[in-house]
Design brief:
Strand order of the largest sheet: 4-3-2-1-5-7-9
Number of helices: 6
Number of strands: 9
Helix content: 10-25%
Distance between the termini: 27 Å
Order of helices and strands: HHEHEEHEHEEHEEE
Structural class: alpha/beta
Strand content: 15-25%
Largest sheet: 7 strands, parallel
Shape: globular
Amino acid sequence: MAFQDLYREKLTTAEKALALVRSGDRVYIQPGCAEPESLVRALVGRAPELRDVEIVHMMTLGCADYVNPEYSASFRHNSLFVGANVRNAVDNGQADYTPIFLAEIESLFLSGEMPIDVVLLQVSPPDHQGYMSLGASVDCTLTAARCARSVIAEVNPQMPRTHGDSFLNVRNVTAIVECS
């Protein structure tokens, strides 16, 4: 099957894609300016259906409504680096902080010490071979995606294409949501 057909087959809405998240799952969100905002909003929208979902990230810069007290039965946040959008929740004991060196994060995923069920990420559109770039956030997200049960990709034509070990193929993604 050509990657274009596979891409179309996996293309869905954020709400349908987030149905992959189950109660008790651990969800990794791509950090920094690459946070997939539409996917995070759709995840928070599922709060009434979910219980005990752990959300892990390094440092997001976008919306972090999952730390709001009204979602405490649905989500528990675990920050590996605390940003301004979750600092109050961590300070008040409504979210967790796991101190760790950046170079040690990938080993948590690879060893299974911190298994990842679902990864939410933002990527560039695929090239002629079906490879999408992680763009502006080349960190431990690729390792998280390789270790996860499900990968939900927000494809954004505004995401710059970067080179190096920053590519994910359409074949390795469970669901695709287009967003600009």
